[in-house]
Protein: Molybdopterin-dependent oxidoreductase
Amino acid sequence: MHVTWRLQRLLHQFRHALATPSRNARTAVVLGRLLGIAFVVCFATGLYSHALQDPAPWMTFPTRPSWLYQASQGVHITAGLVCLPLLFAKLYAVFPQLFQTPPVRSVAHLVERASIALFVGASLVQITIGLLNTYQFYGLFPFSFRHVHFALSFVVVGSLAIHIAVKLPIIARYWRRRDAYDADGRLRETESPSDPDHPFGAPDELQRRTGSRPESGVTGRLFAWIDRAPAPEPPDERAIVSRRGFFAAVGVAAGVLVAFTAGQSFRALDGINLLAPRKNGVGPQSLPVNRTAKAADVEESAMDPDWTLTVANRGTVRSFAYAELAALPHHDAWLPIACVEGWSQYAAWRGPRLRDLLDAVGAPEDARVRITSLQQHGSYGVTEMTPEFARDELTLVALQLDGEPLDLDHGYPARIIAPARPGVLQTKWLAKLEVI
Structure:
């Protein structure tokens, strides 16, 4: 009997804990608005990154400013991190509404709840694998991260659009309007305590905050059983987090994530880059690397004294030894390596222009170029470059980094460096350039 009483009391306290000023329609709409913006930003920047890596034949891309991809992908990763506290905050705000009785009341209600389940599930998977990808935990994925991440983005945005369409009347009502509770959780005098249109409304204060209470069925009997327990002592009002305090906590969580990770993308925050997997100035030649020469299995082939770079345009083929490349006119470019994982860092690169090598084999101005690396395994051993990048004056076959020959991990003997391109397309350990 004592155990039963304690269980009843515990459940009663749990019900009471659900009653909080932060669980109301206005909070849900505000959080939904912020979450929607973050997801749209992630979706747009993700599409741009995907298009750069898999361009359609008709696509062209801007090459200026040279930091365009650095900013785009940095915003993508940062917005994705912000989605995490916003999503959990939104689930917290609407938590009681997720367990309604009956579970489904109509076809429209079924669509609403199905869209919520799909959106929440897909969002959690999308954010989680994205976060793991930034730390390069690829071994945890029994699938292609890039293709699954791309496909899931459409699932997330599609289910979000359905959810918005179903909830549009409530969103419109509470987009600007302050609801029945002020920032400290007190019921406004102008509001009816039994407002039937309030989406979190109910006949008493607890129900107004936690959702309609069922009066029949299994759930109704469970509530009646819980209510037979002695009511717990009312909590100290100072211990109840106000809506203002709730939003402050969410803002602090999001701010900490941004401040302690965005330094890998934006140098101004590098001093407090405590949580990100990459940091400026750390790595060979003071530049981070993702894939080492050992991991790419190119240590022998890259150091082969007989290495040559083959440049081909149909029947015209030329091979350049390292000494021949070094004898060509060199140019300097101050460009960032900006990786899909979100980190980036500027460096001084030097080498012959790619367009000069293409001109040596008579390549047309509008030629696309297939770039082949010495690495035999991996998704980016062979990449393609569209004409606007191939002909850009800042696109180099780099032989030097910060005034020194390339470190083996940075692509020795030669690598591609181009403005406004993902780091995975700045191919290292060059073997062949082919006009297509």
The chain has two domains: 2-259, 293-435.
